[in-house]
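TA notes, week 10

Several of you asked for a full example with nothing omitted. So below is the full record: structure tokens for the whole chain, then the designed sequence directly under it. When grading your own attempts, check the secondary structure regions first.
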């Protein structure tokens, strides 16, 4: 909102189009995810999508640093990020469930509830911390909520928060995914073992 209100000269109407794109993408990509995961695996898929997200953020960053906010560059970045974020979100949540299954396979403990609740907690904490630090940065650069126009330093801070901030986060995420133990082959093998375990448990229940 701040970026469109101040950096784009009050073009908050553009947010509506991004909302339309987000809704369309959310439904359209449901059928795309499964064949994509089968081909790449979650680890390679997440790394590839996050690397792509970094690339599509650059047009908005470069034009912004030049002081010429091109609507085409900004909308390209935001709509492209809608695609990458949606795919990344689906893959990441699926990878979280795989982590719980992996723990069950290696430790014999079903920690699905713990893993899911921890994921939600960490996600909420990251959102809270990002808002907190963003507020501190904007205040330090002279942000005034009552002003129609902000200082050049504040405008640059808003731009960097919208571009460099996510890029840094993606870099850390890619580095973390490098150590993610499950490749596509590992995912298939784990699923086969889980299916066998479920079949054995079902047979035991029928015997009882």
């Amino acid at each position: 909102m701040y970026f469109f209100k101040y950096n784009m000269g009050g073009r908050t109407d553009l947010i509506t189009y991004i909302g339309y794109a987000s809704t369309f993408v959310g439904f359209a990509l449901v059928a795309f995810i499964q064949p994509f995961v089968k081909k790449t695996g979650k680890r390679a898929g997440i790394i590839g999508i996050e690397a792509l997200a970094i690339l599509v953020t650059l047009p908005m960053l470069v034009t912004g640093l030049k002081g010429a906010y091109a609507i085409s560059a900004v909308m390209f970045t935001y709509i492209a990020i809608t695609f990458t974020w949606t795919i990344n979100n689906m893959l990441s949540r699926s990878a979280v469930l795989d982590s719980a299954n992996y723990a069950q396979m290696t430790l014999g403990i079903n920690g699905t509830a713990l893993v899911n609740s921890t994921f939600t907690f960490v996600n909420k904490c990251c959102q809270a911390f990002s808002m907190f630090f963003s507020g501190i940065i904007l205040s330090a650069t002279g942000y005034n909520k009552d002003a129609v126009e902000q200082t050049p330093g504040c405008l640059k801070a808003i731009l960097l928060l919208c571009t460099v901030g996510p890029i840094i986060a993606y870099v850390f995420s890619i580095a973390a995914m490098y150590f993610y133990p499950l490749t596509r082959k590992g995912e298939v093998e784990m699923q086969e073992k889980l299916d066998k375990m479920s079949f054995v448990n079902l047979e035991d229940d029928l015997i009882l």
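The chain is about 85% helix and 0% strand. Use that as a sanity check on your answer.
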